[in-house]
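Per reviewer request, we include the raw input and output of the structure prediction for the construct analysed in the revised manuscript.
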Amino acid sequence: MRAVVLIATILLAAACASVDTDEPRAPQANASAQAGQHIAETKCAGCHAIGPAGESRNVAAPPFRTLSRHYPVTALEEALAEGILVGHPEMPEFRLTPAQIDDLLAYLESVQERRGV
């Protein structure tokens, strides 16, 4: 009887492990957010507070953690693809590749304030 339970458990575990979902796996999502953090550190941290705390160096540059107060972070995708031309007055124009945009958006999502917490 124990052998049957053991085999059933192994088969169930194997079936669960092989289920394919549309959701990104945590390690991949984490790697994307880490790459996005690097982009934010090199291109944005001179003006913006890029982390979950702190104040922006430039008072006209909103902290990244507050961006979702005004609109969905994913709404930045097109602006990042075309090159952000507006923002705070000293903001340089830059363009990102599609992969870099995905990474930066993953990072931005990871640092957003959580309401009601």
